[in-house]
Amino acid sequence: MDQECIQFVPFSHYDWTFARQGWLPWNPTAFCLIASVCAVAYWMSIELLLLVYVTFKRHTGVYFWSIIITTIGIVLQTTGYILKSFENTWPVVLVVIICKVGWVANVTGFSIVLWSRLHLVVRNPRILKWLLVLILVNGLLCHTPVVVFEFGLMTRHHDTYYRPMQIMERIQQTVFTLQETVMSCLYIYHTRKFLKIGYPMQTRKVIGLLLLVQLLVIALDAVLTLFDYTDKFTLKCTLHPLVYSIKLKLEFIVLNQLQSLVKRGMTTGLGAAPAIPADDEKHNRASPSPSPTPSPSRSPRVATPREMQAQTSRPAPRFETGFVTKPGPMVTELNLGEPSPGGESMTDSLESEGKAMGHRKHDSNQTLTESDEHDLRIVVGRADDIVEQPDDMERQYLGRWDGARRE
Questions:
Q1: Among 97, 155, 292, 308, which residue is least crowded by beta carbons within 10 Å?
Q2: Which fold does the domain 18-268 belong to in CATH?
Q3: How far apart are alpha carbons 176 and 173 in whole angstroms?
Q4: Report field, pTM of the whole predicted structure over 0.90
């Protein structure tokens, strides 16, 4: 009985540092805390695996597999930590391998998750390439020393590896925190540009959600970093799987928000180009109708060579319609107000054509043909055709989007 009481350590005197060797000493408060955190991490990991399977129609791609690997890494790290802290019958080498494989998988795996989601909004392949190189280099430089020092702590030369492990643990935690913050900030910046083009009304709401999620992620990383710098390594290892499972869950919040936004845009025609650009419409209203006989009191002005050069180099106004069903004639040069060979001005011709299209649009008896439905499916959505259908968004999130229009 006395021997069992000696093993009890008060919670206020509990050793959470690297200096502790072997399994944890008995304390009901510490054991309940660790068991609760590990149980929540297990539960969230199982839930994430089910969500990934249900959410994605195609179980392929970088985004899908990075989430799967990160989630499995959380499970492995939690299992290895429990075996290392509470079970002394398992081989030490096997326990360290399980724990560190899970740690590498969920830390670098989560960075790959952040990198793969950038394919949705970043159109510059050079940025994506250098970010991937940064992830791989940081993973190699930070994971390797920590794994080596962890094996060294399990040997009889524990004191030799204690100080290097303490320093390297703080360095890797800081590096990975900065890496994830940089990628999240890039995602917020490019998402804002993406939404301002085709979804201006929803920009503030989505950006506000992204900022809130990012602040929460930074706060969680700050807690882990604080535990590292205060030498609370055991407590940090306890919370680490839970923190990364929360991060992955927040990823699904952002994913569902953007996916529902794009689906609403496909349904309501959000982000479609206007019938006539605003500048051209004002120009049409301001341009006077041509008179059949010029006024004798005002002679026509001869254009200067610079004005003629500017007129020829200026691109012709682009007229777009919300629903294109037939390809129109190619207009290489357009002079509003100039009479056509038939005596009708170009402005009058456009107005009459617009009225005819308006009558056809409001005709309740008209039915869409297959070609009309195909054109409608192509035009409705963002103005620059980055996303055409909800499935395309999933393809982008899977990291396999090449930007080509689907036929």
A1: 292
A2: Rhopdopsin 7-helix transmembrane proteins (1.20.1070)
A3: 5
A4: no
